[in-house]
Amino acid sequence: MPVPHNTEHLRFRRMTPADLDEMAALLGDPAVMEFYPAPKTREQAPAWIAWNEDNYATYGLGLWIIETHDGDFVGDCGLTWQRVNGELKLEVGYHVRPAWQGRGFATEAAAASRDFAQEHTDALELVAIVHPDNRASSRVAEKIGMQRVDDDLGADGSVRHVLSMRLRSTADLSDGDRPR
Ligand SMILES: CC(C)(COP(=O)(O)OP(=O)(O)OC[C@H]1O[C@@H](n2cnc3c(N)ncnc32)[C@H](O)[C@@H]1OP(=O)(O)O)[C@@H](O)C(=O)NCCC(=O)NCCS
Questions:
Q1: Is the CB of 144 under 6 A from ligand 1?
Q2: CATH number for the domain including 35?
Q3: Is residue 1 in some structural domain?
Q4: What span, in angstroms and rounded, lies between the C-alpha atoms of 59 and 145?
Q5: Is residue 111 part of a domain?
Q6: CB 134 less than 6 A from any atom of ligand 1
Q7: Residue 18: is it exposed, middle or buried by C-beta count within 10 angstroms (0-12/13-18/19+)?
């Protein structure tokens, strides 16, 4: 099963239960989870890993582990299907350990995930769903070619910015694949 291509500083691999310590530390870090309802507890981290293993098996994609070429754990990045105002859209997501932030790593990894979506899915569009105050996340999305197009309204009334880019034009699809 393919994963995104290597970047200048990073390589991708599938997440497994052996990543529990690193993933629990990442998802339990209040700085990393500032724009989520709460950091995840160690007990919640296995469900995140299992969700990604399900996504690899079902869709051939998910959030993958990103690590340096020396094998140092950097975080996760990749693709998941998410509902945006009721419609399923392919989203790129990323979480980088604070120690590795500010070096362009999220941008490198997000660009490789975008390329994977172009090469290995039929999706026409890639989105990023971002908390309005999460400037770092919006910048990563903008730097790989996205623009804010919409807001997603949660059931609780919360607002998320939706940034989007086209992955291919409908002219690239065969007649049978063209949306109607
Ligand atoms: C978002 C995140 C992945 C970015 O990781 P990163 O590796 O530091 O990002 P990059 O180094 O590729 O930086 C990308 C851009 O964001 C900018 N940026 C980074 N941190 C920023 C901040 N706190 N405020 C404003 N801009 C910021 C960078 O300056 C850069 O833009 P520039 O080239 O125009 O200067 C990281 O901050 C993170 O893990 N945040 C917590 C998890 C999260 O919110 N994920 C997104 C969920 S939607």
A1: no
A2: 3.40.630.30
A3: no
A4: 24
A5: yes
A6: yes
A7: exposed
Residue 138 CA to ligand 1 center (angstroms) comes to 8
Query: Which atom belonging to ligand 1 lies closest to the Cα atom of 77?
Result: 3
The structure tokens 């903008």 sit at 142
Out of 26, 63, 91, 94, give the residue to mutate to test ligand 1, the one with the largest number of ligand atoms within 8 Å of its CB: 94
Is residue 176 assigned to a domain?
no
Does residue 145 form part of some domain?
Answer: yes
Structural domain boundaries, residue 33: 10-169
Report the pLDDT averaged over residues 168-173: 74
Task: Tell me the HSE value of 125 on the side-chain side, using a 13 A CA sphere.
Answer: 16
Q: 135 CB less than 6 Å from ligand 1?
A: yes
Report pLDDT digits (tens) over 21-67.
Answer: 999 999 999 999 999 999 999 999 999 999 999 999 999 999 999 99
For residues 79 and 66, the answer to whether their CB atoms sit within 8 Å is no
Could you give the number of structural domains in the chain?
Answer: 1
Distances (CA, A) of 120 to 92, 123, 124, 140, 170: 14, 9, 12, 22, 16
Tell me what pLDDT residue 180 has: 44
Q: Answer whether 111 contacts ligand 1 (Cβ < 6 A).
A: no
Q: Whose CA is nearest to atom 18 of ligand 1?
A: 136
Distance CA(130)–CA(58), nearest Å, equals: 25
